[in-house]
Amino acid sequence: MKTPKFEDVNVGDALPVLSLPPISRTTLALYAGASGDHNPIHIDLDFARRCGMPDVFAHGMLSAAYLGRLLTGWVPQQRLRRVSMRFTGITQLGHAPACAGRVVEKYEEAGEKRVRVELRCANQYGEDKILGEAVVALD
User: Domain total for the chain?
Assistant: First the structure.
């Protein structure tokens, strides 16, 4: 991975989009096993229906992990200074997440050159599922 340089990054620059395959029951089972999050609303159809949902749906933290993957595909993890996210929608089965980021600020703080990046995870219909931001230190 070639880490971008502060002087080569401009406000408005987009991070490379991370497009993912549609969420499936297998995706949810694998994530539950890997994360230890076995909440039945995400893996048990009968439970989900008893809760008033039409079907199981993705863990919010799965989409958050995808946004983390977007960031660490752009810069090494040790360059991250702050990441914040808020959940804005449910990712249903069949939704194909796409994660994007855009540089919105360049500044210096604590002796480092930093950029603030807006983050977004949306489905194939453009419906936001997570919005957030990150602060990244660059050389």
Answer: 1
